[in-house]
Amino acid sequence: MTLYGVGLGPGQADLVTVRGKRALEDADVVYSPGRLSRSVATEHVPEDRIGDLDFPMTRDEEKLRSAWKEAAAEIATTARDGDAAFVTLGDPNVYSTFGHLRRTLAAFHPEVDLEVVPGVSAVTAFATALGVEITAGSSLALREADGGRSPTGPDRMVLFKVTDAPATHAGLVEAGYDVTYGRRLFMEQGETLVTDDPTAIDERDYYTLAYAEKPEARVEQATDAFLEASDESGLVSDGGAQDIARQERSEGALCGDEVDR
């Protein structure tokens, strides 16, 4: 039958998509690779339909390949006769262990049909939690910052796995970035924290993100004219029709749209 790779979202049970919830409810067995994903899945399916998988905490590639082969064999047995689901926090295709399962199944169990159900990724959840707007005309890069690394280059970055915030912060500030940190955003497991102080978030935690932006990177938006046009009393005019039209044309060009002259 089918294996569903289901993205559970950032960690709160009510942020699972409607399609994801349906896939979990219909699956004969829901396989979980860890404690946090299991805690979200059990909000939607009973404990007796959760199948735990054992993955060693190691960088030894031979041991990891062996663990994934065992997991794929177990899941394939279920998926041949019914429907199975494999759950992962966030989205199955964004910084997820699901890729290992997909490749292992393709190599050893190609008869298993696979369907991916996307989830709310930390890439988008961070924007709401940190109050960041990624506007039209902006570009955004994803980087990994495990072990205190400070990747630089793009004007805006989302950094995953910020496990040594003070070290990462020092490199980013030296390169001219403003940085905000978020830990366990939209997660029911553990304390959510948003801060621009790296010393407040210096404990090692895999679920720590950072948003780094160079101050000059902001793209002017058409509706900025409303606030720029307010008078001394705070009243807002229409911002000037000509100014708004000009900015809209500019945004359209940045997005690759054809602009009427």
Largest sheet: 5 strands, parallel
The Cα radius of gyration reads: 22 Å
Estimated structural class: alpha/beta
Note the total helix count. Answer: 8
| Bulk shape | globular
The percentage of residues in β strands lies in 15-25%
The counted number of beta strands is 10
Helix % is 25-40%
**Amino- and carboxy-terminal Cα gap:** 55 Å
As residue ranges, the low-confidence spans are none
Indicate the mean pLDDT.
85
How do the strands line up in the largest sheet?
3-2-4-1-5
Order of helices and strands: EHEHEHEHEHEEHEEEHH
Overview of the structural elements:
The chain is α/β, with parallel strands linked by helices. The protein is 33% helix and 18% strand. A five-stranded parallel β-sheet has the order 3-2-4-1-5, with helices on both faces. The protein has a five-stranded mixed β-sheet with strand order 6-7-10-8-9, sandwiched between helices. Helix 2 (35-41) links the parallel strand 2 and strand 3 (50-52). Helix 3 (61-81) packs across helix 4. The longest helix has 21 residues, at 61-81. The radius of gyration is 22 Å and the shape is globular. The protein starts with a strand and ends in a 7-residue tail after the last helix.
